[in-house]
Amino acid sequence: MGYIHAMLMVFSATSRFSHEDEKTIEAIKMFFGGTIIDHLILVFTNGDRIGENNWKKMLSDDNFPKYLQDVLKQCKNRAVLFGNETNDKKKCDAQLKELLDLVDSVVSIKCGKPFSNQMFARINIAHEQKELHAKGSSTEQLSELKKERSYDEYFAQVTRMVEEKLNKTIEMMGKQLREEKTARQKAEEKVTEAVSKSQDQMRRLRLSLAKAQEESDKVREENKKYRESEKVRREKEEKTKEEIEDLKDKLNNMEREQQNMKNSNSCNIL
């Protein structure tokens, strides 16, 4: 049985990265274990449409999904861009070479050791037993292997392990989806409640504004009436002052006339 030296995860460079992409990465890590990241290479397609410069800018952009930023960092920036539409053999060969170089770098970093966990180790042992049976191995080899476990027992155990791993992964993903659904429903309820409260507040504010406007109109009308009455009062006051001044002038004139008359009579007597 073969071993996993590198795992390729393929994305379209021109498509929007979705929540499902993030869940896929989480599912792979849950199923294979966190160490699978050490063997991961990200492959982006549609390079003809986006261009290498734009692709590199996209990877370093702050708007690039955080989960992909984290994965890219964890896998030592092992990423390659592939053009789907090119017919240029040199370009195709260069793309393939770049990918194979990344695979070689993974093998080199891991010192040639493939990905392995308990489940994969037992699968390989069981597969080796099957090959030994098929090749008609010696009695000594078979008896040595039988000391560990029989071929059927290994495969039964591996089957159980795979099923348990899958069931556990499915259960965890289902739990996460249920929790996210519950959280989303709660968030929607909070938003609905907040909108309702906001609408109530706006309605009360509109009523308060209308009442304040009405009171303002009343005050303005009263002020207008007051100003008009004040104007009338001032006009009357001015008129009264004028009448008083006129009467004073008349009185002064009369006093002067009387004085003149007195003076005139005195002169006549003399």
UniProtKB/TrEMBL annotation:
Residues 180-192, 212-245 have a biased composition (Basic and acidic residues). PROSITE patterns: G_AIG1 (PS51720). The keyword Iron does not apply. InterPro entries: G_AIG1 (IPR006703), GIMA/IAN/Toc (IPR045058), P-loop_NTPase (IPR027417). Residues 1-124 form the AIG1-type G domain. It comes from the Eukaryota. Keywords: GTP-binding, Nucleotide-binding. Coiled coil: none annotated. Residues 180-245 are annotated as: Disordered. One of its GO terms (molecular function) is GTP binding. PANTHER family: GTPASE, IMAP FAMILY MEMBER-RELATED (PTHR10903), OS04G0441600 PROTEIN (PTHR10903:SF102). This is AIG1-type G domain-containing protein. It comes from Setaria viridis (Green bristlegrass). The lineage of its organism: Eukaryota, Viridiplantae, Streptophyta, Embryophyta, Tracheophyta.
